[in-house]
Amino acid sequence: MAEPVLVLDAVRKSFGALKVTDGVSLAVAPGELHALIGPNGAGKTTLVHQISGMLTPDDGTIRFRGQDVTAFNAEKRARHGLARTFQITSTIASLSALENVALGVQAKASHPLSFFRNAASDERLNRPARAALDAVGLSERANVPAGSLSHGEKRALEIAMALALEPAAILLDEPLAGVGKEEGERLITLLKSLKGRYAMLLVEHDMEAVFALADTVSVLVYGRVIASGDPSAVRADPAVREAYLGEEG
Amino acid sequence: MSAATTTAEVTSVAPPRERAKILLPAILFLLLALAPLAVTIGMPAGWLALLTRALIFAIAALSLDLILGVGGLVSFGHAAFLGIGAYVTGIMITEGRSEALAILPVILGVCALFGAITGAICLRTRGVAFIMITLAFGQMVYFLAQALSAYGGDDGLTLYEKSTLLGFNPFASRTSFYYSVLIALAGAYLLVRGLVASRFGRVLRAARENPTRVSVTGFDVNKVRLVAYVISGMLAGLSGFFLANHTEFVSPAFMSWQRSGELIFMAVLGGVGSLHGAIIGAIAYLIAEDALSHLTEHWRVIFGPMIILFVLFTRGGIVGMLRKLGPRHG
């Protein structure tokens, strides 16, 4: 098996007496779609925050592309090629969809903070941004302010913003949350089209989506990984059924 | 084929909005360029002096709008930069160095240094804490000026000559003083406008709305804000240079917290974030102040509530009002 892109080793995080992340270890290989599931309050989003650098673990290490990034902050990890989306969509509402994506292209450009030239008409930014919008099916909506897009479109836009960073790995925090059935199916098709090209860690509640997409499934309960492996094996695991899947019959 | 049509449609939609963004500032600067003619056709000469003073404050309000309106940082100590600019001018003229090309680099350097040091500290905080700490730094400079006994201390410093530029005296006549300030304002406006539209400006704007998104995209939000803060302070210092030459006097009151508050009012009155709004706001503020102070000694009693009502009932200040009156686009 290829060297994993993302490796978590015994990561721990507590808020007061509450152990939110209790010794989590997992690895995501290049091109692998690794789903992280678990009941509400299992600590999934807190874990994603620690991987993306928005929170610092109390203990343990996070390795990304062979480098220990545990001490890196969020912007440094992003520059190393780690992109993420948020459980609650996070875009720049007043900027157009194209500009939102171009912001990501700009981060990878040779002069990300240049004072000169108009950024909005800069084709070196807009061309790759249009390609990313095209990849998520939003080319028609390029000039619409992000705040005026539908919920599902905002979800797709966030994915395009992640793609613009030319990432080695993408963290997807519940990309289907709050999305209707039709838009949800479109997003699943989109994620399928990205499979194999990026290492992805997918946090998701929609079991149908998880089992349709994932190469590997890990189950997080009370901050611990109680099972990890092949989707069908995880589904059959009695501990998982009891802790989580059982709830849904 | 269909992609080509979409881009064609898209570009044909964009221009009206762009045109509207250019139209108002273009009219504004045209009117300002023609304003001295009003004196020749009968307006009192003092009117031009008032307008000159308004344009000087417009530079300061414009510089504040870069961090306040564009960057979303409410600085309550912006008058400190204005005061530093005025004091550097006053001290250098007193010491016999009245050449503008000697004074301006010192102003820009001192303001950049002061901005970098205080900004680095202030930007560790957010919201109300940011307002309070910028206020504290502003007051620090205020008390420092009061303690400058060699240069007038509490009483201020009277200037017995004005700055020169390469041996010329651009500040000698009212009209050439006016145009000097107008040129500086136009230059500052184009600079800030270019900055806001640049890659740097896009990150600054995005960070006002969603700093978390900007940092997970790989940008150092604080660094961008600090650079904006420094540039803004340098421009405010430039307005201090003109103010000292215009009033021929500098005093600690130039950098009092009330003055910082007035600059915020000017930006809000005109409409924050639009840049030309800050210019309109500064002009409106100074003209209203002047008109009311002729009416009564207690003009502040009228002016205060007027500002409050105006801010309450006009979303987006004067520029927002004008936008509503103008033709609708799209």
Task: Report what the structure shows.
The complex is a heterodimer of chains A (249) and B (330). In chain A, helix 3 crosses helix 4, helix 4 packs across helix 5 and helix 5 runs parallel beside helix 6. In chain A, 35% of the residues lie in helices and 24% in strands. Chain A contains nine helices and ten strands. Chain A starts with 5 loop residues before the first strand and ends in a 6-residue tail after the last helix. Chain A is globular. Chain A folds into two domains: 1-81 and 167-249, P-loop containing nucleotide triphosphate hydrolases (Rossmann fold), CATH 3.40.50.300; 93-166, no CATH class. In chain A, the strands form two sheets. A six-stranded mixed beta sheet of chain A has the order 6-7-8-3-9-10, with helices on both faces. Chain A has a four-stranded antiparallel beta sheet with strand order 2-1-4-5, covered by helices on one side. Helices cover 75% and strands 1% of the residues of chain B. In chain B, helix 11 packs antiparallel against helix 12. Chain B has helices at residues 2-40, 46-70, 79-94, 100-122, 127-146, 174-197, 199-209, 211-216, 221-247, 257-270, 276-295, 299-313, 317-325; strands spanning 157-158, 249-250. The radius of gyration of chain B is 21 Å and the shape is globular. The longest helix of chain B is centred in the first third of the chain and has 39 residues, at 2-40. Chain B is mostly helical. In chain B, strands 1-2 form a two-stranded antiparallel ribbon. The chains are: A alpha/beta (249), B mainly alpha (330). Chains A and B meet through helix 2 and helix 3 of A and helix 1, helix 6, helix 7, helix 8 and helix 9 of B.
| Percent range for β-strand residues of chain B | under 5%
Uncertain ranges of chain A: none
Biggest pleated-sheet summary of chain B:
2 strands, antiparallel
Kindly report the spatial arrangement of strands forming the biggest sheet of chain A: 6-7-8-3-9-10
Q: Compute the number of structural domains of chain A.
A: 2
What is the CATH superfamily label of the largest domain in chain A? P-loop containing nucleotide triphosphate hydrolases
Cα Rg of chain B: 21 Å
Strand content of chain A: 15-25%
**Treating each run of at least 4 consecutive H or I residues as one helix, how many helices of chain B?**
13
For the termini of chain B, the CA-CA separation is 25 Å
Shape, per Cα inertia axes of chain A: globular
> How much helical structure, as a percent, in the residues of chain B?
over 70%
Strand order of the largest sheet of chain B: 1-2
Q: Uncertain runs of chain B with pLDDT below 50, 5 residues or more?
A: 1-16
| Mean pLDDT over the full residue set of chain A | 92
Helix content of chain A: 25-40%
Which two chains share the most extensive interface? A-B, 45 and 30 residues
Reported for the largest beta sheet of chain A, the result is: 6 strands, mixed
